[in-house]
Amino acid sequence: MHIKYKLILPLVFLLSGIMLYPFIFSLWLSLQDYRLTRINDVQFVGFENFGFIATDQSFLNAMGNTISFVASAVIIELILGLSLALLIQKLLIFRGFVRSILLAPMFITPIAVGLMFRFLLNSEIGIIPFYLLRIGVSLDWFGPELALFSIVLIDVWQWTPFMLLMFLAGLEALPKTPFEAARVDGAGRWLTFSSITLPMLRPVIVVALIIRALDAFKVFEYVFAITRGGPGNSTETIMYYIYQTGFRFFRMGEAAAASILLIIFILVFVILIVNLSRPKVIK
Amino acid sequence: MIVSFENRLSRFLGTTAIFIAIILVLFPFLWIFLESIKPPSLGGRPDIWRFEPSWENWREIVFNSNVPLNILNSFFIALITVVISLICGAPAAYAFSRFRGFQGARYSILAAEMMPPAILILPLFLLLYKLELIDSRVGVITAHLTFVVPVVTWFLIGFFDEVPKDLEDQAMIDGYTRFQAFYKVILPAVRPGLAAAGIFGFVLSWNDLFYSLLLTGAESRTLPVAIAGFWTFRGIELGKMAVAILIAVIPVLILSYSIQKHLIRGIGGSGVKY
């Protein structure tokens, strides 16, 4: 056997055992009526689970919540991250120091972030509502109207740093000549940004967008830490729905079907983004 | 050089914006720290800034709770996960970087990295249940490998790509076999990469809640799961929760600070060339 196959053998074995096999198991699971409460009475039901999930009001609601969560969080993070990267790049002193502080949130465990903000924003013991009330603003951050938005804000706090990291590296790697040429030609700040920086950053933006969006689809910790899907089911995300179905209601078959629908959705999303973001002009 | 008024204004606004961002990032940490050293009787009072610092919460957590066990569990699980990931990931990453015909394999590593945990948790839970490995460290390590192995492998491909091919060619001319060249020449050359990938994988495992929540019990509970348990008692446990959060967060901040420079190359892998 060629050495290149020997080198990848351990990885192939490991991933077949812990990922491929469970994945196939999951496909099988999605076709069964598999309940944790009667584990010895598993029945093949074909695509019944998919039919149930696709018409389940709370699945559709969870999907809707997740999509609005992902879209708003990722767009805000993109804009904030890009602006901060441009500002930091202009800093003359303390650049490394500022960068280190601003990147910190992305490294800490999301459950800690969720609980920190549950504490900070709590309407009885939270410091933010306390001082907002002093200036006459009364907001119930985790009430029915604002809860999903608050979860978005928490995500923005933790993950804008990721966008920042990507864009700082992207900006650093841009060639200097086009910018010098633009300055010589007397192009203003906005023109330079929109016709040089932005187009040249496009590949970085696309990669950052995809990585962050795929990660945001998995949002679970904030919901688990703060609202448990409520009030009502206004913050129930798809991961939380699968967790509930599988481990609260013990319906593994339906949970598996939901997770497969999620994968299909994510695949379609990625293909769409990659195609839409191709430069329109063919070289 | 004369700096125009407009220029100075925009610089001032930019600095202000950065300053605000720094405060927004630091404030939650500061407030959590203050909460952790508040006397328990003053816990959860947003109006109190000045008080006699008390180490009561810290003492309780360190000497009188399960948190030290949780820390040990988290540490042990993350360490073993990373070691296995490096052992399996490094040779494969090297092969992906050097040999033809692995384009598809690269993409499957990426696909594995993107796999939502929701689809793996159900079968993993059932398998571990049948093997009686629920509430065992082995079970959690198995689950954590599913996301640490692909990330570490992907991370390392980028580092191997940057090692010049001449290095192992020279080694092989000197009589090393391909494997010896990899093991004795290339691996030492990417030591910073191995360290960065290892630390990143460690942080990912240390931070995980989802798998640990469903696969651990009293014995094998990890720190994030333990933290999640403090809120149920509300005000009473707030100070202790603050301590546990700080304990979970501080080592990770120190570790990740050391790998900041390598992160971009790692996340982008070799797929993204800036």
Please tell me what the overall shape of chain A is. globular
Mean pLDDT over the residues of chain A = 89
Strand content of chain B: under 5%
Low-confidence stretches of chain A: none
Report how far apart the termini of chain A are.
43 Å
* H/E element sequence of chain B: HHHHHHHHHHHH
Strand content of chain A: under 5%
Query: Strand-and-helix sequence of chain A, N→C?
Result: HEEHHHHHHHHHHH
Describe this structure in words.
The complex is a heterodimer of chains A (283) and B (274). By secondary structure, chain A is mainly alpha-helical. Helix content of chain A is 72%, strand content 4%. Chain A has helices at 3-29, 48-55, 57-90, 95-103, 110-121, 127-134, 147-172, 177-184, 189-217, 221-227, 238-247, 252-276, and strands spanning 32-35, 38-44. Chain A has a two-stranded antiparallel ribbon. In chain A, β1 and β2 form a beta hairpin. The model of chain A has no long low-confidence stretch (mean pLDDT 89). Chain B contains twelve helices and no strands. In chain B, α4 packs across α6 (137-161). Chain B folds into two domains: 5-56, no CATH class; 65-268, MetI-like fold, CATH 1.10.3720. With 274 residues, chain B is an all-alpha fold. Chain B has helices at residues 5-36, 56-64, 67-98, 103-114, 117-130, 137-161, 166-173, 178-189, 191-207, 210-215, 223-228, 238-268. The chains are: A mainly alpha (283), B mainly alpha (274). Chains A and B meet through α1, α3, α4, α5 and α6 of A and α1, α3, α4, α5 and α6 of B.
Short description:
With 283 residues, chain A is mostly helical.
Features:
A: 283 residues; mainly alpha; MetI-like fold; 12 helices; B: 274 residues; globular; disordered C terminus
What is the topology?
The complex is a heterodimer of chains A (283) and B (274).
Chain A: H1 3-29, E1 32-35, E2 38-44, H2 48-55, H3 57-90, H4 95-103, H5 110-121, H6 127-134, H7 147-172, H8 177-184, H9 189-217, H10 221-227, H11 238-247, H12 252-276
Antiparallel strand pairs in A: 1-2
Helix pairs in contact in A: 2-12, 3-7, 3-9, 5-10, 7-9, 9-12, 11-12
Chain B: H1 5-36, H2 56-64, H3 67-98, H4 103-114, H5 117-130, H6 137-161, H7 166-173, H8 178-189, H9 191-207, H10 210-215, H11 223-228, H12 238-268
Helix pairs in contact in B: 1-12, 2-12, 3-6, 3-9, 4-6, 5-6, 6-9, 6-12, 7-8, 9-12
